[in-house]
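Still learning folds. Look over my entry:

…
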Amino acid sequence: INIDEMNLFTFSVDLNKLLVPTPPVISRDNSGQPMQDIDGNYIIEAGRDPNVGVPAGIFGSFTDAPGVYYDDNWDLQEIGKFKEEMREVNLGAGLEYWYAHRFALRGGYFYEHYTKGNRQYAALGAGMKYKTLEIDLSYLIPTVQQHPLAKTLRFTLKFNFGSGNQGDTKES
């Protein structure tokens, strides 16, 4: 959204799903240990064998959710296949502000369901653009405890080869 020549806002939403097979739920004994058949293969309680080719993995990823999971007491809980497929969709949203096409401020949020990895964090960032050079910084703020990306500072250094002074000068 161009407010005027000097101010620009962008709002974005991202829904994504990895196109990989969902791991099946393996049968467990009373102590919670995985069960195996006589050949040493794990016994699949629900879901499909993930050892498939690339095309089958991609297209099968939309329908292969087991629909069950083991809770903390090793009791099997049923949630339904469609509900689990929806849990595999990650959500990201962000807001970006540019001043004079040179300085940027950004904020966003990323959500992944706790049964699929539990990555949940807010991100704050800033950027600067000068001719062919761009520098971006971001800081991740986890919204769950024990997050592996806690207090992570990221930076990007980008060179736009071939863009010249595009956008740096304005014709009168």
